Amino acid sequence: xxxxxxxxxxxxxxxxxxxxxxxxxxxxxxxxxxxxxxxxxxxxxxxxxxxxxxxxxxxxxxxxxxxxxxxxxxxxxxxxxxxxxxxx
Length: 88
Description:
The chain contains 1 helix and 4 strands; from the N terminus they run ββββα. By secondary structure, the chain is of the alpha+beta class. It has a two-stranded antiparallel sheet. The longest helix has 11 residues, at 77-87. The chain is globular and about 50 Å long. The termini are far apart.
């Protein structure tokens, strides 16, 4: 496992790792390559996105033991700005 050298568990940036397989993966309906975005890519409100991970699913909850997957539409930046202001 190769963890990003700048990963910090207290931050959201660089939260990525690579796994080197002992043998090549066999692609199928359930195993496929993933395309990572470039830092210069931009996304629009309403774009379809998929997020996976083992993060928290509840406020003050612990990390999940099983990989989670969530699909949905990207919300406009203004929604997040309003939500953060109301929580402070």
